[in-house]
Amino acid sequence: MARVTGIGGVFLRSRDPVRLAAWYRDNLGVPMSEKGTVTFHWLDTATTDHPGTTTMALFAQDTEYIGEPHQRTMLNLRVDDLVSLMAKLKARGVEVLPETEDSEFGRFGWCVDPEGNRIELWEPAEGM
Predict the structure, then answer these.
(1) Taking the CB of residue 76, how many other CB atoms lie within 10 A of it?
(2) How far from the centroid of its chain's Cα atoms is residue 41's Cα?
(3) Beta pairing class for 73-79 and 53-60
(4) Distance (Å, rounded) from C-alpha 74 to C-alpha 59?
(5) 2 near 20, Cβ under 8 Å?
């Protein structure tokens, strides 16, 4: 159907990812790894075929992955049909970045919202 099915992750730029990960662990109880990542597993809507997760990850201040330097966060949205959704967005005049990426985690594409924020679209691999 080419739609968003959930939040795949929230990514934050950080001047010091190791220190910020420790802050989230120590102050909020977020079980972040030393690398600054944590994955929460969906308990209410998970199935064997689609267990569902949401990830929080910290990135270095100078990362280009999140988008322009002024963008502090990037939303990752789970989608059910990346190719169709990207085509639908283009047809509606949304800025869709030309590159896509395939990995062990699935397929990724990106679009930009009206305020210039990069949004990552993620079609999870089977079993994710």
Answers:
(1) 21
(2) 15
(3) unpaired
(4) 10
(5) no
Per DSSP, which regions of 15-126 are E strands? 37-41, 53-60, 73-79, 95-103, 106-112, 118-124
C-alpha pair distances (Å), 6 with each of 67, 69, 76: 21, 26, 9
Could you read off the pLDDT of 55-105 as tens digits, one per residue?
888 999 999 988 888 888 888 888 889 999 999 889 989 999 999 999 999
End-to-end Cα distance, the chain: 19
The span from the CA of 98 to the CA of 103, in Å, is: 17
The closest of 94, 57, 79 to 125, measured between CA atoms, is: 79
Tokens of 122: 């993620």
Q: Is 43 left (phi over 0), alpha (psi -120 to 50) or beta?
A: alpha
Q: Report how many helices (DSSP H) and strands (DSSP E) the chain contains, helices first.
A: 2, 7
Q: Which two tokens stand for residue 97?
A: 């970045």
Q: What is the pTM of this model?
A: 0.73
In a 13 Å sphere around the CA of 21, the CA atoms on its Cβ side amount to 17
